[in-house]
Design goal:
Strand content: 5-15%
Low-confidence stretches: none
Mean pLDDT: 90
Number of domains: 1
Largest sheet: 3 strands, mixed
Distance between the termini: 16 Å
Order of helices and strands: HEHHEEHEEEHEH
Structural class: alpha+beta
Strand order of the largest sheet: 5-4-6
Radius of gyration: 17 Å
């Protein structure tokens, strides 16, 4: 069996594809996007698939020990509502944020009660009512892909008992001992 770290390649490939699409959207509509450093109205203490939790926990090894210790302390004191990675309106692990955090605010097509709906942050894209299909993230497809990647991850690695849960909070992810 592979370790958790060896099986993050599928997740990291998905992140790269999502980032590529988001960068293209920002290049095309940058002047109509309000999301930026300090914009934290949508930041919440969410739950993650185990694959995302491990990726987030692994990110703590890529930053300074001091910053990692600070983040772990915030995770230990986390409330159920506020994201433990948010400090002074900024994400402390922005480069390593989850898929939902990467896509929030961008044009998403969702299925609500059997009807396709275009959704994005109301502060973004003022005056735009439609987008080319290439500039819209299909949320159902993205979530299904992430679920498959998580299934492969959990089936192909030796996982700790905590990772046997369906979802972990950000705080739980940050406190994983990898």
């Amino acid at each position: 069996m592979a370790t958790e770290m060896e099986t993050l390649v599928n997740y990291r490939n998905l992140v790269a594809k999502v980032d590529e699409l988001c960068r293209r959207i920002i290049r095309e509509y940058g002047d109509l996007i309000s999301c930026r450093k300090g914009c934290d109205g949508c930041c919440r203490h969410i739950t993650l698939f185990p694959v995302e939790a491990v990726a987030l926990a692994a990110a703590l090894r890529e930053i300074s020990p001091e910053k990692s210790a600070q983040i772990r302390q915030l995770a230990r004191a986390a409330s159920p509502e506020a994201c433990p990675l948010l400090k002074n309106g900024c994400c402390l692990l922005y480069a390593f944020r989850s898929i939902i955090c990467r896509t929030h605010g961008h044009p998403l097509i969702t299925d609500r009660e059997g009807e396709k709906t275009l959704d994005f942050c109301p502060k973004n894209f003022s005056g735009i009512s439609s987008f080319p299909a290439a500039d819209i993230l299909n949320l159902e497809l993205l979530n299904a892909t992430l679920a498959v990647i998580n299934g492969v991850f959990t089936a192909s690695c030796v996982i700790s008992p905590l990772l046997r849960k369906d979802r972990l909070s950000i705080a739980e992810a940050l406190l994983l001992d990898l």
